[in-house]
Amino acid sequence: MNNKPIDITRLGAIRCLIAPEPRTTPEGEVRRDREGNPLWITGLSVRQAEGRGLDTIHVTTSNQPQGLVEGAEVKVTNLWANEWAVGGRNGTSYRADAIAPVSGSGGGSASAAPAAAPRGKSAGGDS
Which of 12, 38, 69, 94 pairs with 63 at a CA distance of 20 to 30 A? Predict the structure, then answer.
């Protein structure tokens, strides 16, 4: 497994696509970090600085991001990518220290209220 820091300054606009939700196991239990803090997962869109490319990533944090509105621009602190392979499957998961709204960024019409139910395991999940 390779952990790689992501240089945020080389990315274009980052927006919240899916408000933070508890990260859960397939059995529905909330996943926790090594210190016992519950993990949160947030769907982000990342627009490439040059060109029209757009990627969607699901970023895990140990602290619940506050004040995120779907569609609004966000700031990500210490973003890391982790390549993984388990049982013939592989992918990339993303972790960050924090995700916060960019002041005055505007955004979508969705509220910042927590989701009604957890989504469960993300595509490319780390535990």
Answer: 12
Report CA-CA distances (Å) from 61 to 54, 93, 99, 123: 22, 11, 8, 15
What's the pLDDT at 109? 41
Render pLDDT for 54-72 as a digit per residue (tens, 0 to 9). 899 999 999 999 999 999 9
What DSSP string runs through 41-78?
Answer: EEEEEEEESSSS-EEEEEEEESS---S--TTSBEEEES
Say which residues have a Cβ less than 8 Å from residue 109's Cβ, sequence separation at least 6: 71
Please give the CATH topology (third level) of the domain spanning 2-101.
OB fold (Dihydrolipoamide Acetyltransferase, E2P) (2.40.50)
